[in-house]
Amino acid sequence: MLPDRLSFCSTMISRAITSLTALAITAIAVSTTGWPFLRGIHPHRDLARSSSPLSQESDPDPTDFSAEELEHLQRRFGVHGPQTQLAQLFTRGVDQLQPLRANTLSRLHRLKPVIQREADRHTINPMLITAILFDEIQHSKPGEDLPFVVHSGLVETHGPAQLGISELIHQGRLPADPTPQQIAAARDLLMDPDANVELLAAKLARLKGQLGLEREAILIASRSYVDAKAIATLAYLHNGKLDYPARVLRYMQDPALHGLIYSTIRPAPLPVI
Q1: Mean pLDDT of 164-176
Q2: DSSP 3-state percent helix, strand, coil across the chain (nearest 5)
Q3: pLDDT tens sequence across 62-88
Q4: CA dihedral in degrees (255, 141, 182, 117; nearest 10)?
């Protein structure tokens, strides 16, 4: 009888310690980031992940947003659900086109210096910037960068990162009610590749602040679930489509994109399509 009671007490103490540890981890995370979505994180799973060799099978998916998170993001930022299944299928098909991929990588290589400069300036992971640019360039519509199309008002986003006039207003670079002349000048600015990348980095820094994330901390998806969830949220807020964060996180792990940003060896020239 006594061994059974001792075993029961030992189990209850162990559970209490686990619960207190989880609460402590949550408190530390909230105090250091202030990120409201930490309420949906399960610290005990993060603790288990750090010690389990089977972590990849048990990790929560950072691109899964709860109903409460989606409601908050939709109400505050106006994001939407995913693309239709047909549109997602088309996107995956486009990614298989090797000549198009080679052209996208070539354009990114030319943007590498400004990506690295602005990532450092705004304390943004350069792979996040690169992944977003890769997606937006890879899936841009033919002809949307032609001057008469840009200034026609038929398309709302411009340049490599597909940014709109509204982002310049958010950053205080345009008044809330710009004149036609200011709008025309803003569209020209957005079509400048270097300026467009700088505006993207500034947008991500702005969104970090709005989410309550530490501005001076670089988010690294492989470091923790919290960082991966923050990156997924930033990607979601940039594009507004729910299927977008998973693509960005996947592109951030693309060996060719990693080599493009971090390699010191100049690759062979890629064909321009």
Answers
A1: 96
A2: 65, 0, 30
A3: 999 999 999 999 999 988 887 777 776
A4: 10
